[in-house]
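Budget justification note: compute hours in this period were largely spent on complex prediction jobs such as the one shown. Inputs:
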Amino acid sequence: MTAQVEIRDRRWPWYAAVSAIVVALTLSMISPADAVQGDLIRIMYIHVPAAWLAYLAFTVTLAGSIGYLATKRMVFDRLAASSAEVGVYFTGLAILLGMIWGKPTWGVWWTWDARLTLTAIMFFVYVGYLALRRATLDPDARAKRSAILGVLAIVQIPIVHFSVVWWRTLHQPPSIIRPDGPAIQDPLMVVALVAGVVAFTVVYAALVTKRMELARIEDAVVAREATLERPVAGEAVVAPDLSPEPGGAR
Amino acid sequence: MSGIRRQALAVARRDLARERRRGEVLWVTIPFGVIALLLVPLAIGTDQATLHRVGPGLYWVVVLLFGVLVGVRGAADETGPQRDAAALLGLDPVAVFAGRTIATSSLLVLFEIVVGVAAVAFYDIDLIGVGWLVVVVLLVAAGLGTLATLASSIVAAGAGAAALVPLLVAPLAIPLLLGATQSLDGLRQGRSILSWILLMIVVVLVLGIVGVVSSGPLQESR
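Corresponding output:
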């Protein structure tokens, strides 16, 4: 008896993601260099969308967690987990790119700025979320426990976002969404930044879609294996063959 | 309600009795924290002025990192058969959570006091505003105790629980660390520390509410 699990090989997420990235990269390359930072500004076209995705991903994790706790449907658990996994990756990317940008701009790889420190803490909170999932084998227990943590962990996001407003920090305040309009004057720069955000959001959607599909297959395989017939204890032990070998030798 | 209170106190007494027999916090965790306070000057230098300046912050970092071990103790103890027995006895999950939180927080107060005495001696920390210090110590113990109990309930003696609980607790305890360090700093400089006290009270309340609300679903998932 073999385990058979339906696999839906959907390609559209990849096509959409690659198209969006090509458009965003092109725009980021043709947008003008910054008057002060020069070409270093181009890192921002990836750093800002990656940071945005971290917020989006962890908010979706919250929504998935609440959805699971309310309905007990595993699809919400898979959504929360997949989104957290992608979010951790993009948070790491945002931190790494910020460090690469910070070295020539601030003169150091890391500074004890509120936004940086809190983002690193948020990263580790969700690393803990993923570690908790790996440590819990029972699917229902895993879903319930990680859903509670997914709800609790969301408190980090407003603290990280408003840290640049609440504390006097080295990290600049919001550049686009602000009460007195965008701080960026060049329209092409704004378009390139917005295109980056849209492209990364499409990439996020593609990755989460594929990861959820993979999680569904994993769950189906585990469930299927649990129902398979297994060899009974002692079946592997066979009586020694004491019959005389051909030729008379024992 | 009185039933829940009675059950919670019974669970707390059980946890404290277990600690009295084993002495895990008193003879292992507390000495470990004091050793950490001894090691730092060997690493950063023994300049008295520097140690006097960093001492209070260092004390709270030790309380946070080593205090988590007090919460881990609960996660390691709560094995499947024990949880099943508690459920069969009809213990209210809220009472179990509250009882374990009371026991962990009480042990944390002991930990903070003993390690605090060592920190005052090693780093020559000024004790200004003793009344407020007592409030800060109690709030940190309550907050860290609630968080550690909640995290150990979530992990529930799963694989790698001893490492997982600190990973969950340490980042989420940052508001408590900030509140405690800023309160001490404020007392030293004669500033009002009410906003930091309020922050810690809010953290304790939020964690308590999350713990109480999630205690039922967490017991079901075991």
